[in-house]
Structure formats: structure tokens, C-alpha cells
Amino acid sequence: MKSLLLFSKTKMKSLLFCVVFLELVWFGYGHDQSRNHHPLAPAFFIFGDSLVDSGNNNYIPTLAKANYLPYGIDFGFPTGRFCNGRTVVDYGAMYLGLPLVPPYLSPVSIGGNVLKGLNYASAAAGILDETGQHYGARTTLNGQISQFEMTIQLQLQPFFQNPADLRKYLAKSIIAINIGSNDYINNYLMPDRYSSSQIYGGKEYATLLIKTLSAQISRLYNLGARKMVLAGSGPLGCIPSQLSMVKGKNSSGCVTKINNLISLFNSRLKDLPNTLNKTLPGSLFIYQNFYALFHDMVVNPSRYGLVVPDKACCGGGRYGGALTCLPLQQPCMDRHHYVFWDAFHPTEIANKIIAKNTFSKSTKYSYPISFYELAKL
């Protein structure tokens, strides 16, 4: 990401102009990407980090950007997604029968476009406000929720004749929250930059994150959100970035110490709905076990038609994880065989596999009910 500093301001402005123009073409002229005319939910609102950011960081001063090739090479153009193509929530929108959800900060997020949902996710963002600050600007989860509040007050209210109709619309909409990874890889696991690992043990830190997230979910509830999808963090000890920094891996090809930390967070996140259901009447939650699914993809890639489970398709150094994907770098040709696109993020094919198992009717990695069942309620 630091390589972006090599670009002149003129080139960066040109890139941004191209991205905005293509977004206007994609979203602004009624490009119908929905599966049908009877979606399972009226709207899809997305909160999170670079795993689901659809381009918000294009519009803020940050090193955490992906608005250049080869990012987006299989999407058709670079959109700001940290992937060669679509993200997991892009497929989630398709399963709902909705079009791709535009980024909140994009010029296309105006007028009737907002009625089918917005994406507030921001690369480098975390549950904690300080997470990822070494990248520069990013919209933290608290900031994303404030943006959602402004969306309701300034953009959505004019479309509804009375408050009851707006409340019903929000209650039927799906709220996806995919965040927490940066609170580890861009906070707790960076002791030279952040003090969190010196203050908290693994269990205490996971408890802090869940306590903070619980308050943030309560904010969303108070704004009208009722159907919420909580995505667990993936096995960060398996990503190329972490593999590039250690000498040894376990038998599964991952760093056990890091995965154990993530498991502490995920176990608490899975239990969180049991607590919130008692304090937030009428709320509905599902937990998506991304960890178990993604770990299985790394350990048993052939089961999913994959071949390369530990190297980045676009990157540099050991496992392609020491240096993330550079502007105009030549990525691997057989991207459909790779689990990882760059040092941190899955390929489009990996996202498609994850979505098929978590944003569908399947309950294998969704608790206590499927995504489909949640949408139908």
C-alpha cells in the first residue's frame, strides 16, 4: 500500500476520476444486477473493513487503497475493492436478489440508489477507533454507524410518508457486520505501534472487542436495525502476510498462536446474540462461521477446486505476503486456483465459495439459522 506514494497527485486524481466515471455508468444508469424483481429484503447495509469495502477509501486520504490495477482485474476495472473481482458481500447481495451495493462516499450514493442499501465499510477500520491509524484516514465502525444515522435522517426519510413505514423498511433490511480482523493485524499484533498487547492478555482483549462491539450493535438497533449478520473473523494465522513473518507453521500450514487469538474473539462473538436478544427486543441475529470454512479451504483446497492455499496471487516476498499487490504488478494467471489474492484478502473465487456456504440456505456455517431464513423472517 505504501507503494501508492510513488504515484503523483495527478495520476491519483486521474485514477479517481476513472473510478467515479465507471461507478456512474455501473450504478447511475439503472444497471440491473439483481437476481429478480422480488428481493428477499428491501435493502442491504454493510459495515466492516477491507474484506467488504467496495470503494469508500477511494475518497479519503489514506494509504489503504485499492483503486488501481491489478485490483479489479476480473471485475472489469479497479473499484476500490481489495480483490481481483467481487467480495463476499457482493455475492451476498446477489443471494438477496439485490444489485451490488454502492459505497457510501461515492457520488452514485444519492437519490433512489440508497433505497436498496449502502456500503459503509472502510479498509483499515476496526472495532476500536485507534485500530489502523498508521494507514491514515479510515472510517472506524463508530464512524460508519454515524454515517448510517445520517443516511436515515437526510437520505431515507424523504422517501417515506410516515415514520412507521421507515421503521418497517429498516426492520426488514439486512445489516451485515464484518469487522475485527484489523483489531488484530493492525493493532494487537503490532506491538511496536500499538500498546494493546502490553495492556491486555488475549482473553481480555477479545472481551474488550466484544464489549465495544455490543455497544455499537445497540446503536444500530436504536437507529432501527433488527436483522443483523455477524461475520466471524477468518484464520488470520493462515494469511500470507502473517506467514511471511514467521519461520514455522503448524501441520495445517498456519500460525497457531495467531489463530488461537482469533478463536477467543470468535467464540465470544458467536455467543453475543444470546446476550443481545435479551436486551434488544425484536432483534434477530445470525453468526457466520467464516473461520471454520476458510480454514477448511486452506487445509483442504482441492475439496473446493483450489490449488494454492498459502501464497498470494499478487504480492512479493515469502508467500507473496511480505509486500502486498503493487500498482500494475502482473498477478498470477490462474487466479481461480488461489485462495488468496494479495497478502491479506481472498480471491474472487474464494469469496464466491464463502458466500455460497454462508449467504445461502445452508446452515453448516450459519448459526442459529441460515442467511436465507433470516431474510425471509
The number of helical segments is: 12
- Straight-line N-to-C gap: 42 Å
CA-based gyration radius: 19 Å
Note poorly predicted spans. Answer: 1-12, 28-34
Helix fraction by DSSP (H/I, runs of at least 4): 25-40%
Number of strands: 9
GO molecular function, one term: hydrolase activity, acting on ester bonds
Keywords: Hydrolase, Lipid degradation, Lipid metabolism, Secreted, Signal
GO cellular component, one term: extracellular region
Protein name: GDSL esterase/lipase 7
Structure commentary:
InterPro entries: GDSL, GDSL_esterase/lipase, SGNH_hydro_sf, SGNH_plant_lipase-like. One of its GO terms (molecular function) is hydrolase activity, acting on ester bonds. Its main location: secreted. It comes from Brassica campestris. It is found in: Secreted. The structure is a single chain. The chain is of the alpha/beta class and 377 residues long. The protein contains twelve helices and nine strands. A five-stranded mixed sheet has the order 1-2-3-4-9, with helices on both faces. β6 and β7 form a beta hairpin. α2 crosses α11, α7 (202-222) packs parallel to α9 (256-279) and α10 (290-299) crosses α11. The model is unreliable at 1-12 and 28-34 (pLDDT under 50).
